[in-house]
Structures are given as C-alpha cells and as structure tokens.
Amino acid sequence: MKLRGKVHKFGVNVDTDVIIPARYLNVSEPEELAKHCMEDIDADFSTKVEPGDIIMATTNFGCGSSREHAPLAIKACGISCVIAQSFARIFFRNAINIGLPLLECSEAVNETETGDILEVDLSSGKVNNISKHKTFTANTYPEFMMGIINAGGLIPYTKSKLERDKDGI
Amino acid sequence: MTLAEKILAAHSGNKKVSPGEFINVKVDLALANDITAPLAIREFQHLGVGKVFNPKKVVMVPDHFCPNKDIKSAEQAKLMREFAKEQGLLYFEIGRMGIEHVLLPEQGLALPGQVIVGADSHTCTYGALGAFATGMGSTDIAVAIATGEIWMKVPPTIKFIYRGKLPKWVSGKDLILYTIGDIGVDGALYSAMEFTGEAIDELPMDGRFTIANMAIEAGAKAGIFNVDAKTEKYVKEHGNYPYSIYRTDKGAEYSRVIEYDVSKIEPQIAFPHLPSNTKPISQVGDIKLDQVVIGGCTNGRLDDLRAAAKILKGRQIHPELRCIIIPGSQKVYLDALREGLVEIFIEAGAAVSTPTCGPCLGGHMGVLATGERCLSTTNRNFVGRMGSPRSEVYLASPAVAATSAILGRIGDPREVT
What we know:
- Chain A is α/β, with parallel strands linked by helices.
- Chain A is 34% helix and 19% strand.
- Chain A has 8 helices and 7 strands.
- A 7-stranded mixed sheet of chain A has the order 4-3-2-1-5-6-7.
- In chain A, a hairpin with a 4-residue loop joins strand 5 and strand 6.
- The two termini of chain A are 30 Å apart.
- In chain B, 32% of the residues lie in helices and 18% in strands.
- In chain B, strands 4-3-2-5-6 form a 5-stranded parallel sheet, covered by helices on one side.
- In chain B, helix 11 packs across helix 13 (341-348).
- Chain B is globular, with a radius of gyration of 20 Å.
- At the A-B interface, helix 5 and helix 8 of A face helix 2, helix 3 and helix 5 of B.
C-alpha cells in the first residue's frame, strides 16, 4: 500500500499527554479526540492536517501513558503514518493494534523537514522524499507482527485465530 | 534466565525464553480503569466472544476521573460499571476503592510470580512483588480479557545494583528519579529493569512499589524485584493467597549492569518537562510554588503519608500555597486516620481527598492554571500534564513535598528537621 502526504515534524520524546491531553479523555470517540490532537505543542495541528499527511519525530515517540486514545486521535486526524527514529513501547503496540502504520527510519527523519512531501510504500518500507528527491528504507517488521498488520489490527487477527481454533485447524 | 524471563517462560509453556522472542503468555490478572475500560469494552464486543475468560481475573477500578468529575466522565464510569456487573468482574466502587496500583496489592490480587497486564502504563508497579507486570493499551486488554492470553516480545533485562546505605530523607522515589535522570526517559526502552542491592533489601515494600511504578518513565516494559522476606510478609498480611516464587538464575544474562552508590544520593527533583530532568536538592535554587500534591499511584501509600506527616506535624502550610493530600486507597485513608496523620494534615492547613488519580493527569482535584507551579509526588511532569500547557510540574518524594508545602518553595527536609 502506498501513502502520500505532507510532513509535520516534531522532536524528541513526544509524549501521549501532548498527543492527546488527559483533559479530553472523558470521551472515547476518535473524531472527538482528533479535534485536540497535538494541541499542547502545535495549537492548530488538527486544522492544518490534510488526509494522508505524515507525522515525523526523532526518538521515543509516544512515551508516557497507555492511552490508546493517542494513536486513535492521530489516525482520526487523517494522518496516514508516523515515521520516527524510535517509538515508546506501549504506543508502538497500540498503533499496530488499531491499524496506524509506524515506520522506524533514522535517515529519513534526519533528512526531512516539515512541509516535505513523502511517498511511503508500506510493503517494501521505502520512504521517498519527493521534495528532496531522496529515498530511504525503513526497518522491517518481524514476521509475527506482520501477521497482525496484514490482518488489519489485533482484533481481526484474534477473531480469525479464534475461528481457526474453533474449527480445529 | 533472569527473573522476568523465568516468569514469562513459565507462563508460555516454554522451558526457556530469550530476549527478542515472540511468545503467547497466559495472564493471571488483567486490569482497566474508567479511561481505558470503555475502549477495551468496545473492542471486546467486536471480538464477539460474549464472556470474559475468567471474571475473577479481570479487575476494573473507577479511579482516574472518579468520583465522576463531569457528565462525560460519569458516562464512561457508568459504561464500565455496567460491564463489570454484567460480566461479574472484580469491581471496586467509590468508597471501597483505591488508585488501582495501590489497591490491587492491598487486596491480595497482585501476587509474586504472576503475569499481570493492565490498560494503564503504571501497571509495572506490581513488579515490586516479584510479578511480571506491564502496561498495554485497551485493545490488548480486550484480547487478554477475552482469551486469557496476550502476545509479548521477551524483553532483555537491565540489572541495577544499589549499594550502600540510604542517607536520611532519601527514599525509593529519590532512587528511581536518580536512575531515570542517569539513563534517560528511553534508557530502558523495551527492557525489564531488575532492581537489586543492599539498599533495595533495606527498602520497605512501599518504597519498592514507588520504584517499580516509575520503570515506565525510563521506557521499560517492566520493573521487577526478587521476592524476599519483606515481600512474603506483605503478601501474608494482604489476603495470604497462594503464589509462586521465581528467582533469577545464577549466571543469568543481562543486557547491561548499572551500579550506584546510594550513600552519595541526595533527595532528587525532576524539573519540567521530563522525569529525567533531575537535579539533586542542593542544586535546585529558589523555586516558588503554588501547589503541592502528595499522593498518586507512585506515593499514595501509608509510608508516604507518614513521611509527610513527620514534617507537617505542628507546622503550617505556606499561606500562598495549596497542599492537596490524597491517600491512595480507602485502607490507606483509614490507617492514616487511625494513626492521627489526617489530623496532622488538616491542622497544618492541607486538603485531604478521597482516593483518586485526579490531579496527577490534570483531571480534577487540583488542575493548574497558566503560569502555576506544582511540586507533586506523582510520576509525570510532561507539558500540560496537570492542567494548562503553560503550567509547570516538579516531581519529588513525599518528604520534599511536605517540606516545600511549608516553605512555599522547593525545600530540603534537612532545612526543617
């Protein structure tokens, strides 16, 4: 699958409290959460984002709480994927589980600026910076995790596993 | 194998597991709260299994925005309460509850040797009991409560050795802040942190809970302690339910070994806006405060309140400061009341609240205005964590918090005792 969008670049240790502040966690609807995504570090973020856009950050993106509201808010904003040098552990699981693609690619992060247009091929991990005419390759996922990603998230993955178990396959 | 690897091997039907391996793990206890449960319940319903795998192994606690802070929170709490009732889950109502990570060990639900998963990042607290406990998201918990199993990647273990004798007023909170200050907020990313050494042996259980609680603040998957006589005594006094003990093998492989001499560690303060942004108290300078919070899943236990009371006894909260003290559970509250601690707090001019996570995440019971500064015994000081994105949060121990509440600025307990 190919994604294409404009980059919104952030720095190090972007935590879940700035991705979606706790004061908005009294609801669970992704569309409501999306209105406040990144609000505390980029007040107009949710209005600037266009469908397909890409978040980029350096290390430890998504550190802090376990709130799945964070990747849900990002996804519901229209963000097509997040590219970072590294991700915090719980955020990583949550994003994979809900079907928000994440890519680890240090070189792409180093050589991309806010506003650049990227084309991302999720199956090959190729990140093409159209604005700068440069191509990078992201780390690949282990086979086990590809299974969850290809199923469309943990719920469809588990559902088909439960059905297989029931059928004794 | 390390302690973490042994627990994971035993719960995945393997003789041996190694870091990096993907395994399916049987879950002894799964947990969610009023913020994360509604999402978990929605995803659980998408699975279409009907019933949870074992209602006596699933706990739901209304603690974050409860007692309900507004109508929307009330709706979320109601959704969780109704699901818990319909499924016959372990559920602790307002007036009988506590902050989840204070409550579960107290109730004898979190035990040594268990695998515990919770839709709350501070689930790692139970590592203090020698359990493998880790935070996850709501979808993971939906699968865990439906099937009783969850996938994990076996983490490498980093061993921390704390040598020497703890100086006066230096607590578990100071050790973990010092450690995070040293290794950084991603210093233990994807790893298990194993806490050892004679200073750890000397530490009471409440101090160990504080340390394990903040393992996530270094990016860790789990923070874990080997079981000793103190752990066993704690478990006996809290339900006395059966449990299994696993211990680190001789010659176990660690990804790193880090040693500290605790006799040189001062009380620590984490400055805004990261828990790793620490300074020893002697280098803090004059920082005026508007609010002090003592409580949370990090420091809302009886030992924490005792430390605060020792300093607040017979003294007054600074006239230009609000001090909010939140016992971590109804039991802690009652014990503190019976010991006379609550009287000390109220006479000093502090507000004492029913258990809630409230102010820690800027929910209610102490939200900060623009430009305000708070010193808190909780675990996070990110931008906007306790309210306005232009407020500031400093993290410290209960002793430093109580001292600062008297002085109206960040203060060293040695200044007032």
